[in-house]
Each structure stands twice: as structure tokens, then as C-alpha cells.
């Protein structure tokens, strides 16, 4: 501070330092997206008032606090004390009677002051009746001590476990110590299955194929003599043989060769034989068909089955009539040929036996 008449001395001019004066800084440019309006700085919140500066408030001011004195609760109902339990130790004398200690009388309490309350209106809902006071049950009577139980017998010591006898090691190489034994390989059953398949695949064809191979192919030729039979060579017998061959060819058109002939004996018996060769898959049904074909021609009866004893060969015989006399017609069929004969003046069994003899002489297979 200077007096009013004194003026402050002007500061000396700065000396030239050889450097340019520094201009004041330019105002800062707004960043991209910044608002041109400066944000207003909110005023700081006032400090909170301290509790000691507040005026205390009485929450019960102006309230009627009279009539809050409640009457004391009623005294509790006196109960009898329980007797003291007797000692659990057994004794020889009779049990002592329980001693009841009389309850000490309580001193009288002063009566509480009565407070007059306004009469309350009766409740609108039904009031439940007051609880009924039930009598208190007397304390349980003491029970006499239970008699001492006899001591149980001492337990029997268990039998020592049976020791297994060391079994002998199995035969064969054993695994070295410290290595797990090699698991036993289960026995496979495929050889039995393979044998069964081979039996089914090869046995069935062999069972049915052996008769076919032994009976086919076959050739037929009529011999001049068979036992006591002689082959007739007259014109009538030749014409009959040709007619029979034509009928066989017509009935069995797949036959490879046919034959027919008429045989007689010195006693006047006559046997006519005819048939053919060729493969037959079902000889049994072919024998029945042949008998059916000849039924109308010879008036045959019921055909009978004759056992030939050869697997794959089937024979049938039946009794009929031809030219006014009884005849027996028999046929024998296998996988390679069919032979049929008409017998006169012979029984059915003799005719069947003679047909087997004729067949062995007439039909021959290539395996023989």
C-alpha cells in the first residue's frame, strides 16, 4: 500500500534476452461429438444435519396412557410332588413304602386392587365354554424290583476252521511267479457243427443219389429163355409185341428205349412182358400211375404193394381178367427202367417172384 500522493515506480523495462515472447495459448478446440454448451456443474449437496441439532419428539405426546395397569395373573394350581424313586439295588427285605412329603402351605397373598373397566358389549359370535378342569392323576405306584436273572452259561468257543488240503498243481506248464496265469481257452464247438453240416449236405444227397447212380442208365434186351419160359417168335406174338411197344411209347414218351415180348411154358402158361428204359425221378408214383393206366384194360382190382428188397425199386401187383380168364398184372419201376408183365394160371405171389426173375434177365445197368 502506498500513500495517495506517492505513485509506484514504474518497473524497469525488461532487458533483451534474445528470445521471442511466448504468445498466450489458443482456446482448445472441441473434440468430435463434444457439445458446444459447457455442462453445468451441480452445486454440492448441503451437509446432513447432525442428530444433536434436532429437537427431540415425544411419541406418546397427547395420548391417554391411563388404564394400562393390568391385574396380576392368578396363582398357579398347587400340584403334588412326585415321590422319590427307590434305589435300583436289590435287597433282601420287603420294599419300603414310599414317603410322601406334604406340600408346605403357601402364605396368603394380598388381594390385588380392583380396577373398574367399562362394560364391553356382548360378542356377535358364539363364545366357547370355559375349559373343563380334569382331575390330576395320582403318581404311579412304585414297582417291586425284578428278581435277579440267572447268569447265562459261558459261550462255547467256536470250532477252528477246517484247513483245506493243498491240492496238487494242475498238470501242464505253470506261469512263473509274479505273472498272472494264462486263461484257459474254451473248447470250441465248431467242429461238431461243421460235421453236422457236412452230414446234412453230403449225407442226404448220398442217400438219395446212390440208388439213382446204381440204377441209371440201363439197357433192355429180351433173352430167348428165362427159367422154363421160352420166347415165342411167331407172327401173332410179334404183332402183339409191336402193339405193346407202341402203347408203352405213347404212355412213357420220355423213355429212351422200349421192349415187349411173349413167353410161354410147356405147361401152357403165358407171360407177356413190356416196358422201357430211361431216368425216373419218382419211381413210386410212376408205379401207381402204370397200374392206373392198365386198370381199364384188364379190369384190375385193388393193387397190392410188394417189397422188392432194393432201395429205390417199387413193385405193385393186382388181379384182373383178360380174354375170359383170370390174370395177374405186376409192374416194377426204379430210377432207370419200368417193367410190366401179365401172368396167366399163376398166383399173385408167384407172379411177383417171376417178375423179379424176368427183370434181372431183361434189364441190365452199365455198372455191372
CATH architecture of the domain at 216-365: 3-Layer(aba) Sandwich
Task: Please state the CA-atom Rg, rounded to the nearest Å.
Answer: 71 Å
Order of strands across the widest beta sheet?
2-3-4-5-9-8-7-6
What's the CATH first level of the domain at 216-365? Alpha Beta
Task: Let me know the largest β-sheet.
Answer: 8 strands, antiparallel
Number of strand segments = 10
Pick out the low-confidence regions: none
Shape: elongated
Mean pLDDT: 76
Distance between the termini: 169 Å
Summing up helix and strand content along with how strands pair, one would put the structural category as alpha+beta
Helical element count? 4
**Strand residue percentage:** 15-25%
Look up the CATH topology of the domain at 216-365. Protein Transport Mog1p, Chain A
What is the helix/strand order? Answer: HEEEHEEHEEEEHE
Q: State the helicity in percent bands.
A: 10-25%
List the helices and strands and how they pair.
Blueprint: H1 190-215, E1 218-220, E2 225-226, E3 229-231, H2 235-251, E4 257-264, E5 270-277, H3 283-298, E6 304-306, E7 314-322, E8 325-333, E9 337-344, H4 348-362, E10 363-365
Antiparallel strand pairs: 1-10, 2-3, 3-4, 4-5, 5-9, 6-7, 7-8, 8-9
Amino acid at each position: 500500500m502506498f500513500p495517495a500522493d506517492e505513485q509506484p515506480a514504474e518497473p524497469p523495462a525488461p532487458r533483451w534476452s534474445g528470445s521471442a515472447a511466448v504468445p498466450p495459448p489458443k482456446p482448445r478446440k472441441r473434440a468430435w461429438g463434444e457439445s458446444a454448451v459447457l455442462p453445468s456443474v451441480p452445486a454440492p449437496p448441503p451437509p446432513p444435519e447432525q442428530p444433536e441439532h434436532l429437537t427431540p419428539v415425544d411419541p406418546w405426546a397427547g395420548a391417554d396412557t391411563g388404564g394400562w395397569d393390568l391385574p396380576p395373573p392368578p396363582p398357579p394350581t398347587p400340584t403334588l410332588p412326585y415321590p422319590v424313586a427307590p434305589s435300583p439295588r436289590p435287597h433282601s427285605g420287603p420294599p419300603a413304602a414310599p414317603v410322601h412329603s406334604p406340600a408346605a402351605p403357601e402364605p396368603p397373598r394380598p388381594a390385588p386392587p380392583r380396577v373398574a373397566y367399562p362394560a364391553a358389549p356382548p360378542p356377535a359370535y358364539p363364545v366357547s365354554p370355559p375349559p373343563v378342569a380334569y382331575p390330576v392323576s395320582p403318581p404311579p405306584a412304585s414297582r417291586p424290583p425284578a428278581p435277579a436273572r440267572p447268569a447265562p452259561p459261558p459261550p462255547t468257543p467256536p470250532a477252528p476252521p477246517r484247513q483245506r488240503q493243498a491240492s496238487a498243481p494242475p498238470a501242464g506248464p505253470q506261469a512263473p511267479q509274479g505273472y498272472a496265469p494264462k486263461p484257459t481257452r474254451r473248447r470250441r464247438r465248431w467242429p461238431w457243427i461243421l460235421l453236422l453240416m457236412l452230414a446234412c449236405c453230403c449225407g442226404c444227397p448220398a442217400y438219395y443219389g446212390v440208388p439213382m447212380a446204381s440204377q441209371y442208365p440201363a439197357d433192355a434186351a429180351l433173352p430167348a429163355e428165362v427159367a422154363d419160359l421160352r420166347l415165342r417168335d411167331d407172327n401173332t406174338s410179334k404183332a402183339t409185341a409191336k402193339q405193346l411197344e407202341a402203347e408203352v411209347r405213347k404212355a412213357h414218351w420220355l423213355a429212351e428205349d422200349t421192349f415187349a415180348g411173349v413167353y410161354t411154358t410147356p405147361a401152357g402158361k403165358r407171360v407177356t412182358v413190356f416196358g422201357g428204359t430211361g431216368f425216373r425221378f419218382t419211381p413210386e408214383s410212376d408205379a401207381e400211375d402204370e397200374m392206373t393206366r392198365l386198370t381199364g384194360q384188364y379190369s384190375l382190382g385193388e393193387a397190392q404193394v410188394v417189397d422188392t428188397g432194393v432201395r429205390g425199386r417199387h413193385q405193385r401187383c393186382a388181379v384182373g381178367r383178360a380174354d375170359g380168364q383170370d390174370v395177374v398184372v405186376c409192374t416194377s419201376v426204379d430210377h432207370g427202367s419200368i417193367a410190366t408183365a401179365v401172368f396167366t394160371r399163376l398166383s399173385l405171389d408167384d407172379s411177383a417172384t417171376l417178375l423179379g426173375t424176368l427183370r434181372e434177365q431183361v434189364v441190365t445197368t452199365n455198372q455191372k
